[in-house]
UniProtKB/TrEMBL annotation:
InterPro entries: CARBOXYPEPT_ZN_2. This is Uncharacterized protein. One of its GO terms (molecular function) is metal ion binding. The chain crosses the membrane at residues 75-94, 106-128, 192-213, 225-246. Coiled coil: none annotated.
Amino acid sequence: MVIYAKIKSISVLLRVYLGHALMNLVTLPYYRYFRQNTLIPIKTIIKSYEHGGESDNIYRMFAAWQDRKLIELHFVQVAATLLSGAVIGCFSWIERDKEHWLGPASWYCCLILSLFAILLSSTEALIFNTIKSPENSISLRDRMSMICEVKGTVHNPAPSGDKEKGKLQMPQTERAIIRWNMVFTWQAPMMLLAYSVIAFLMGVTIYITTPLYTDDLSLGGKSAAIFYLVGLFIGGAVFVWCSFWAHRFVNLDEPRESPHLMGRL
C-alpha cells in the first residue's frame, strides 16, 4: 500500500509538471497576455472567493477582468481582420515555381486561424457584454462557474442586514476548483491570433527567401532576401525588447476594481 501511494503521488506530480510545461510551451508566443489577462486574474478571483471575500469585492474583480478581456477581444477582432486582409493580398503576389510548399500552406493556415479568431472573439465578447448588463445579472455562484467548479453548500448565511449592505461573506464550506477547460476557452482567441501571425510571417519569410535555397533570381534575388532578413531581425529584436520593458515595472496581474462599477455601487 505504501509503495502504491508513493507511485500514485509521483504520477500526480508528474502530470502536474507536464501539464504546466505544456501550458507554458503552447502559450509562449503570447505569454504575457495569457498570464495577465486570463490565468492570474482567474486565480486571484478564485482565491478571494475561497477565502470568504465580500461579494461586492468579488463582483468588482469580475467586472475588472471582464473589462480587460473585452479590450483584448476587441484587439483580436481588429488585428485578425487586418491579418486576413493582408494574407489575402499575398495570394496575388507573383508565383514562384520553386517556392517551398510550406510558404503557401502557412498562408492558408494563417487565413483559417485568423477567421476563427474573429468568430470566437466576437462570440466571447457578446457573452461578456451580456452578463455585464444589469438586465442580465446572474448570481455570484453562477458567475464563478465560468472559471471554476464550486463545491459545497451554504450552511451559515449572513444576516439580512449584511445582505442589504452587500457584504455577504462566502461560506467557508465552499471550495473552488479551477476549470482548466474554461481557462483554455477564454484565452483561445488570443492563441488563434498569435499562431496566425506566426504562420503569416513564416509564409512571407519562405516566399521572400526562396532565392537563398533555389536559383530563382526574381524580385531582387538574394540581395532582397538578405535585406528582408535583416529587417525581420531588427523588428523582432525591438519588439521583444520593448515588450519586456513595457511590462517590467507595471503590475497588471491582479484584476482591480472597475471604476465604472464602483460608480454604480
